[in-house]
Amino acid sequence: MFKIPLEYRQKITVLYQDTVDEKVVDFCQKLEFKEQIELKENVPYHIYEDLTIMCNPYTEGDSYALFSTNNHKLLNLNDCLVKTREEAKSLAEVVGEVDVLFSQFGYSKKVGNIDGITLREEASLEKLERLKYQCEFLKPKVLVPFATFVYFCHEENRYNNHGMKRIDSVASFIEDEIGVTCNVLYPGDCWEMGKEWDSTKSIENFLQFYAALETTEYIKAPKIDLEVLVAQSRDFAKTLWDRYPQFREELSNMEAGVYVTDYNQSFRFSVPDGLVETHIDYDFYDLATGSECLHYGFKYLWGIDTMNINARFQIPIHGYYPKFKIFGGMASCLNREEPLKKLEVTNFIVT
Questions:
Q1: DSSP string, 195-209
Q2: How far apart, in whole angstroms, are the C-alpha atoms of residue 56 and residue 215?
Q3: 221 SS3 class
Q4: For residues 179 and 139, what is the distance between their CA atoms, to the nearest angstrom?
Q5: In the chain, which end has fewer C-beta atoms inside a 10 angstrom radius, N or C?
Q6: Which of 89, 85, 64, 83 is nearest to 74 (CA)?
Q7: With contact defined as beta carbons under 8 Å apart, do 297 and 272 qualify?
């Protein structure tokens, strides 16, 4: 958004879902966009002539958008986890049947450790099964698989690419197994709704992109000074301690084992102490990651949540990652200004 020239920003109206924290709206105001409009749940907003948008919140800060005209309905699910028949049915009761569905076809977060290829293959198949449920109740004439064309570009997460379904096999599954027309769109493509679309060239472009990744140079992480890392962890721990006085008894009994890979050093993380050096067998740490990734996790309220997406860590064989992830879940609630009424490690298990 910073790259949009000011003279253009001052002519742009930003539409965004209604949120408690209003951070995105405030951010856009500071960048001097013409106008910021928060879209209320279940209330269509008129854009132009007979075109409306209805943006509804979903789980974990996500939202979906329904675009409607007198003749067409297009639903963009983005990353909304509509993963069961019951959830798909409930969604259809709100939005009705649609003509075009934009939906997620692959995973975009950490799935398993380096050796967890089978887990990633199963996760890929599960995403395709979700499409079946969505099509059963939403009944789209066309499905556009667009989330997510991601590749994991860091040397610490490149393993997460192995097991991911390619778009050619996804398109075949949608048309052969679900029986719905699949339109694959490559960046820059333009498709007019109601007209036929040939996905051949778009798929070829993606296959060329996949092939180029085999020789792509992956990002390498810099080392963060250990003193800086420990100090940041203490600031993070203090924030949780100060902002959650009602959970101090529980926090006093919670800790996670952390192995910092680029220093080969062992720590225990707790609140309000932060990282404290310790020594236990590697197999019993709750996560193992580099200093830069861990520093970012402690620096921002959303930081640990991003670790669940960026996949730049491993979970030792006897470790229990939710013991660490719960601290990120608490910080994420602060970031979104959402109340946390109950504190259990299982509240924040990676699913």
A1: S----HHHHHHHHHH
A2: 41
A3: coil
A4: 11
A5: C
A6: 64
A7: no
